[in-house]
Fold Spore germination protein.
Amino acid sequence: MVEHVIEKLGKSPDFQHQHIVLGGKHVELFALSSLVDVAATVWRIKETASAESYTWEQLKWTLGGEEAAKAGDHVQGLLEGRALLFTANRSEAIWVQPLSQNLNRSINSPNNQNILISSQTGFIEDMMTNVGLIRNELRSAHLKQSLVLVGSTHKQRMLILSLDNTVDAALLADCEAAIRAHANEDFTSTRQVAKWLRQQPLWSPLPCYNRTESPHEACHYLKQGRIALLIEGYPEAIIIPVHLADLFILDTDLDLPSALSVMIIFFRVLGALIAIIAPAAYVALVSINPDVMKLELIYSIARSRVGVPYPSLTEALILLFIIEMLLEAIVRLPKSIGPAMTMVGGIILGQAVVEAQLVSNLLIIVLAASTIANFTIIGYQFALTVRLWRYIMLFFAALFGPLGIVCGLFLLLSLISNVTILSKPFMPTTAPRGGKTNR
């Protein structure tokens, strides 16, 4: 048994093998120092087993050890941060509770999600800590957990959370079955989860789950009958299934008066429509059907485009590509200089392209409004979907004018109404009542 452990891990610099005398018995301790505080663990073991004489069974009972009879589990257990104790003749072994290295960051507010109202705590990379944060928000015996180990060479822990008094039993069973059916696949990214759960074409840009870094928001979704998936090493919860309303409605909206909630939701819906339609409307009205506008507006647009050598579609694409590069630069640059660099770059580039007569002033206003409106959408994945559909609408408008905008919106609505996640529609026809979805 020991030979297999030494063969797999013996050459690693953090592999620790120590001889200890406990109660007159010689034992051997194996652990990884990168995961286990070996010195503190040895000291605690000696303090716990401080009697002069022990049998192996007495020692195992005193240390609270767990039988480690399967040799094939020894390497995986050490990689999970456990400590292995062998007898002197290496015929028997037990797992002992070690003192782990502090590898997790402290609980802080979410890094990528702004919370205006409610709890400011955010998930971290440790899965059990995240479960504790959810239990602290939702003290209910109805909270059920199901652990799934995914992977063949590397076991990734996934925890499926639900409230048994609100969740649809068929939805929960389908979710567990979909994940367990791929338990032998090595987990590399959350994109695999989307592949396992989706019941739609792979080319569809719509996400099949939502993400949140807020335990308060995760509990809100659980109360609605959703499923929360926690993955070890990911500081977020994956919410299954996702609904169209998640683009525009936050759980914190319920803390506001009804009139204010409706106003905020209205502006979010309006922002999504402006983000999708505004660039396409510019191209359609300038290139295909300028006659639908008032004469004064036609003259104003014509004056702003004097000297521009490109058609309106090329003009819009050039500026859109510049905006996309600026948005990516904001994400990639360090937080200390990213906003300043991109702001300066945007001002300089915007002024330069106008003075060089490569684009019109009106187009800059339209695309700036479209970009700002895109940020009103809740969720990064949804915002990316809107950014992608903006280009599709742009080409429809360039080909068919205002009719192309109508066709693009019809295609988008057809796609949304056809999407299902684990047999649940992306655009449900009824609202949840008391946590359960009534059909």
